[in-house]
């Protein structure tokens, strides 16, 4: 039987399950007309934003499409590459769009369900999160299997004499461009959405909460709707595109290494089959996410955990059979261990992330205590917490790389070892369906809370949505652990793919990738700097966009008569529109960086320099992303910890100091940090796609 | 004639000039008895601190000395290595101690001179700075030439048949251990002094300025003396030890590469001779630092600039003759260009640093404007400014490496190219005598201002010392540019020395330093994380120490009756003592990191892993150090810019927001940032010294 048929079946299964969940959510009552009105306002704002974003991004895709077409015409790429690029972008955007549509439909339904019970609220929010999770994996597998079958058909028809190796090589290099499309779209979605959501959030908080002293999500705040829209375009659509990219990227990069490792078709099939089996395991796991009425938050977390752990246990069993089926018997055990090492590393990084960012542990508690001496010490402590939290993930990734490399046979054959590293990344993401579901429901609960606040629902509803939101913060931390860990492993696999590709293009090329080679070393330096430049641009963008929202909210407060008394309505749409325009304008520079820098460095320093660049970007990017995500998460939860009554509680000086930390942390954890993950992989994919050009033309 | 005799002569010249300047400063009137009293209090506090620090560090040196002795006994090192290590540490400490003694003597004299005129104040402060500058270079050259002559004598006596290559190899590897001693001492001095100065500064500011609302350096503040002591032990003694280390490190690492490059004794002599000639050029340059009475601040800056530019121009001419004398004619021009590229790169990085940190340019002005929306935006903008400011230095270092590598013959012979890179670092630091003088006078002026404030001198005196202090900030930025640029280049030379050393130990060793080799790559990851961990530990240390000072200052304010009315004296000594104890305790962990991590990584990952570690630490360390130094400098000057009357001036909300930025920036620019420079080089030197052990024993 063809393993790829199972992959296609996995895609269908995932999409069918997503559709079922979608119908289940849609069947829930939407609440009062006022709730539905706000939900619709958020939905239309988010839709307007995404439409505008896709329009802007379409220009970028059109330009790159043309460049790729020219390169294909020049014989530097295969003819399908430009089209693969576009479909990758399209499906990534689609995954985000569906997730966003579901989330904006689910927010009022979650608020309504939460008015009945905490558990009912969880079920609705989790179902909506499942739509997102399974849409992402379903579309990913669908697209992969489509291209696989189409290209196999095409190549066997056009050149029936082609060796199976050559065939697979053509297929995987097209898939890689498809990955580049997905990464490009994800970068725009993450950066644009991230700018939108944080500009609205910071703007709303700074003027509303701090200056005017009104609560969060108060309907009098002109930026309240924009804030909720932001959650959907940034935390939902952005995250969907992001994880679609991670998922596809890890599979594609591993497939690319299969040929060099000597595994042929079977090796290409392993990562795809693992992903497809992961769908089934995730669905089984999600049936275990249930709890009795009146469950405490601890029970709820346990319920979510049970689901993911069952899925993980099942995929381990499945992986055993998958590798033994598709790979030579003498390699199967080693590759299996690589899968396990990836899975375990993902869970371990998630646990570490939770340790550093949850207020049930010392680091975040100490961070809240530092608010006693003012906001400066909160910032210093938070930055230092974030930096300290990079140690364990680096060690975990290092150990995981060593285990997967050597167990997969790296000592005997370099390429087999690297294939093992790639497979470990796939293992880490194989249960993405359910981990993403537990992750994606967080912003939905957040939005539901906003709606509860804006429609003046009873305080207990807000308490329940807050509980769900807070639970979401914990699961989001785990989710970020997976995203970031897999990014590092995938990037390593991509660097290997790059070298592989270069050798395919020019088998007699003399490379010196040694760190003592000056061009490699300078590449390493430039690469090490790139994530800093990227973070600077994205943070600056948030700052600039937030600044304009601050001015606008202040203007509305001072010019709209009766606004503070609740007698007049603010101009919500204007804030949404301003955020949209700022995000569109400001996302361009950082996103283009990922595409332009590797090409420019390649033209100057050649292949050795590019390899250095990729390694440098991966290393610094990984460390910086972990640091920013964890510092941001810890600041957020330190603030929440104080709000729960510690150190003087809400409104105290400590709370004010902690709010400063949280505000600094917002772009850290929701804009710059997660976007760096994508940056790491996109620079690698761009380098691979443009390898032909660089090998032909370079200065040094 | 022997070039090394010229080096010894340079050492004597530098020390004689320093002695002359010392006498000139000492001849100045010390001001009123009250001024002298405070100056003595600061001096005795600083002396007490340094004595305690040296005592603590002595234990570390004793332990490492014993380890090296054991290794020498086991034949892994030459017999003199342990002694070279100790002298490096001793002279580094001595340079810092003399600088500190001069500075504490000069502070009241500068305040007194400033009461006459701005220009007189500058002259006294600059003369005191010169003592420091020329002591550092004089002791450095003295020590280098002593070991050179002693070892040459010894080896020619013990083994007269030894080839000149072997002789030079033994000499340079001993010099390297001497460099490791200097770096170890510098790291302790920078970290310990940095913790002391910033804990006192933050503690004094947070309670005195922010909570009690009294001016900076107000005698009622119990931490006022500790703050001034901190300037001397951190910014003077710490910086002295730091630049001693940079200076010696660049010379030693280049010498080590001379043999591999095939230049023999002449090649070893080039960096030393350049440094010695630099002494003479610096002295000539310093005679041009004079200005007419009533000069504006612009004139003063121009006067300082004239001095450094003349010194730079002279060293270029001297370098031409030096390289043509000592090197084969066909290589001389190339090496000369390498020297020039280093000099130019140093000046360029200094200019960039100034652009990003001086309030006469847009970045810092925009940073002050961000205070309009509160402290959170000040932090975000400052971090983003710091990150953005890393781009140009990375490009400059990259271009400089390429030029010096290829011009020095790297295309034909790898080692000749690397020698060129080393020489460019020496070129950058050759005029250290005068650049350090313009740098070291800043803290003296700062202290003078403190004394003026505490003794209630007329407001114009404080204005003049503030003007000098502010001028010092600009020159300090340039100085930091040199320190950081040379650190990157020196570290690259040291990585090459490491590989060289490994080949010396085991000529048939099979290395794979390619970035696709998993052990190298994991080393790269760990190395990339190391500066983050180091920064976290040092920032945490400042935070913890400051916290205890905050508590103590609050306690004194609330328990000492009549303190706020100026009727009772605070307990200054207790704050000094607390800072001393905290600094001693907290400096240990970060400093040990630099020594332990490379050995542990080596024992596990072997030579390839260590090489990756060094490259990773250099890349991330360079970027992070630039980012922290520039963000810190910009925050400081943004605050000063507001104090000069912009955005509401002193006491406004904007000012309060900017003070938060400045407080966060303090450990950035004066503790963590500069210490990372040392970390980069010390890890390399430790790796080289322990190379014999690692080659013999390692896991992978």
Quaternary organisation of the protein chains: homodimer
In helices, the fraction of residues of chain A equals over 70%
The low-pLDDT segments of chain A are none
Q: Structural class of chain A, please?
A: mainly alpha
* Ends apart, CA distance between termini of chain A: 50 Å
Determine the strand fraction of chain A and express it as a percent band.
Answer: under 5%
Summarize model confidence as the mean pLDDT of chain A. 88
Order of helices and strands of chain A: HHHHHHHHHHHHHHHHHHHH
Give an account of the 3D structure.
Two copies of one chain form a homodimer. With 700 residues, the first copy, chain A, is an all-alpha fold. Chain A is 84% helix and 0% strand. Chain A is built from 20 helices and no strands. Chain A has helices at 3-26, 33-73, 81-114, 118-158, 164-212, 224-260, 264-287, 297-326, 329-357, 362-369, 375-388, 391-407, 414-429, 432-454, 459-505, 518-559, 572-586, 588-643, 653-689, 691-696. In chain A, helix 3 packs across helix 5, helix 14 (432-454) runs antiparallel to helix 15 and helix 15 (459-505) runs antiparallel to helix 18 (588-643). The longest helix of chain A is centred in the C-terminal third of the chain and has 56 residues, at 588-643. The radius of gyration of chain A is 24 Å and the shape is globular. The mean pLDDT of chain A is 88. The interface between A and B is large, with 79 and 79 residues.
